[in-house]
Fold:
Amino acid sequence: MSEQTELTEDAIVTVREFFTALELGAVEEALELLHPDLVWKNTSLPDVGGGLARRILRGLNRDRIGFAARMHHIAAEDDNVVLTDRTDILRVGPLRVAFWVAGTFELRDGRIILWHDHFSWENFLRGTAVGVWRAIFSRA
Structure:
């Protein structure tokens, strides 16, 4: 296996480990995979720097809040760029909102320096409506 192939696989492993740690509630472990100069971008929302991103992600350390990601596809363009196609699931109490996300991750020194997610507000709102419906009627 070439060194380039190993670096590319390492980048994919880093992104997978990041999502796995978030899903398991091991937020501090996930934060270790983020570069100090991280920029987190989301469609039509303001960019978030590393400090604020860390505070937001630490909010996942609550019992009533959770996160999961179903990875549909993941590929590395080279040893520094990883592309994801996934469904993210945000949980607040009994409410679960699932929506499609395409992500681009750039790595520097083996850590994520750019996290750029693209999603559809329409898809997010549809996922919210479905989640509210299920939360209400699954209790009945």
User: Anything to note?
Assistant: The two ends are 56 Å apart (CA to CA). The chain has a mean pLDDT of 92.
